[in-house]
Amino acid sequence: MLYRTHNCGELRLDHVDQTVKLAGWVDTVRDHGGVIFIDLRDHYGTAQVVINDEALIRGISRECVISVGGVLRMRAPETVNAKIPTGEVELKAESVELLGRAVNRLPFEIGESDQTREDLRLKYRFLDLRNPKVHQNIVTRARITKYLREKMDELGFVEIQTPILTSSSPEGARDYLVPSRKHHGMFYALPQAPQQFKQLLMTAGFDKYYQIAPCFRDEDARADRSPGEFYQLDFEMAFAGQEDVFAVAENVLYGAFTEFSNKRVSPAPFRRIAFAESMLTYGTDKPDLRNPLLIRDLTGFFADVDFAPFRGKPVRGVAAPDCAGQPKSFFEKMLAFATEELGMKGLGYISILAGMELKGPIVKFLSPEKQQELIALLGLKENDTLFFISDEPKLADSLAGRIRTELGRRLNLIDTDAFEFCFITDFPMYGINEETGETEFTHNPFSMPQGGMQALETMNPLEIKAYQYDIVCNGVELSSGAVRNHRPDVMLKAFKIAGYTQADIESKFSALYNAFQYGAPPHAGMAPGLDRIVMLLTGQDSIREVVAFPMNSAAQDLLLGAPGTVTERQLREVHIKIR
Hints:
579 residues; alpha+beta; CATH 2.40.50.140; Gyrase A, domain 2; eight-stranded mixed sheet; 27% helix; globular
C-alpha cells in the first residue's frame, strides 16, 4: 500500500495541481465552520491539509497518524504562512485513512513539551521527541556525528570498535559491573573509557585510531554529564606528542563549530593556559574566556595592611569596569550571592568615583600611598569597582572564580555570540587525598610525567606536572587527554608513588603492562565529548536535551523502567544473592 508520495516538508509551488499523498501525525485541527484545517507533521516538516467533508476525519484527533490524498493547490495570498517552507501551498483532501489512533488526552502539549517538567517528558519521551525543536536536536546530533567521522577519516584515522564488556579498573569513577554466568563470582565491567584498548591499539601498530565511543560511569548527574552513559570522539596517535594532538583537535573542533553554528569561533591555535595560571586568573580549570574579567592575586599587596579579615589568608581581586554606578541593590544582591549561595563570610569592594576617589568600607584601612599603589597595580579607572575575595587557600581561587562568573553574568559582559576555546595544560600529576592523607593520581593515571623517570625519582610528587590537558569551550570541559606513559619502568615508578605495587599493576593492568614489554611507541590522544559538543552547538543547557533516551538525574530510565527488579532465576544464573 502506498502511504505517501511526498513528505510533509517538501511540497512547494512546483507541485501545485499534482495529486499527492501525505502521511504523518495530526498536529492541530482547526474547524472554521464547515472547512477544517489540519497541520500534518512528519520527520521532515509540516503541511496544511484542507478538508470540506467532516465525515473524512470523524474520530480523528491530535496525534493520530493518518494518510491523506488529494490535489495540491496554492493558498490564497492572505493565508500564506511565511514561517514554514510549505506555507504557500495546501493539500485539498479527497481521502483520509486512519493509520494509528491516539488517545484524546495527551500528557502535555507536544509543541510545548520542552516547558514540561522533566519526569513527565522522560516518561513520555516518544511524545517529547515529536516536538520539532527537540526532534531537531537529535537530527543535528546525527549530522554532527557524521561530520566528525568524515573529518577523522579525512585526517587518516582508522575507526575501530573496542569491547563493551571488559575488566574493572580504577580510572576515577565507579564501574558498572556485570556478573558472569559462566564464571562463578566474577564480574565484567562496562568501560569508563576505551583507555587501555586504545593504548593497546597503538602497541599493535595502528598509527591513528578513533571511534565514537560509549563510556559508562556510575556517577551523579549534572547539566553537562549524564549518569550512566555518554559518548565521546575518542582518538589516539602513535609517535605523537601534545602539540600533535592539539593540531588534530583544533582542526576537527574548529571545523565542526563553524560548520554547525553562525557564531564566532576562536581560530586555531587555541590558547594554551597552564592549570595553575587558570586557577589563579579565572578561579577554575574550565574558564569561560567570553567573560573579560580577570582575577588578580592581592595577597602580597595586603601583607602590610592591618585588615583582620584578610590576615594570613590569600586575597583575590576582581575589577569590574563601569560598575561603580550600579544601584545599591546590585551590591546587595552580590553580597547575598556570596554569603547565601557560596557560604562566604562577606564580599568587600572598593569603587572608583570621579576624580579617582576611592569609596568603600576597606578604604579606611589603606593609606593614601597604598590607594595609589592599588590603582597603579590593577590599572583601575573611574567607575570601576574592585571586589575582594579572601578565604582558606583551598577555597580562595574557586570562590573568586564564582564571583567572577556572577559579575560577568549580572553586568552582561559575556559574549553570547561566540565560542571561545582553550587548552588547559600542565596538570599536577599527584595530589593528597583529603580523607586518607595519601598521595594519589589527580588525573589520568596512564599519563607521562613531565621530566619522565628523573622527575619521579628526584622531585616532590606534589610538584610533578603531567602531560595532561583539557580542552574547554565557553566554560564547558569538552575533553581530557594526555601524552601516555608507554614505558613499563616509568609506569611502575609512577604507580608506586600512588601506592600501587608491581603486583597491583600486573593484576589490574596486566594487558597494558605486558604489552609495554614488547616495544610500545610514544603515543598521545584525547576524547572530546560528543554530548557536550552537540549541547553547545544547539544552545541547550543540559545534555539530556541532545540524547534520544536519557536517564533522569537519579540515573533512572523513566520510559523503560530501569533499573528494575529481576527474577530469582535470573539472579541464580549469575550467582547473585541480594543482601
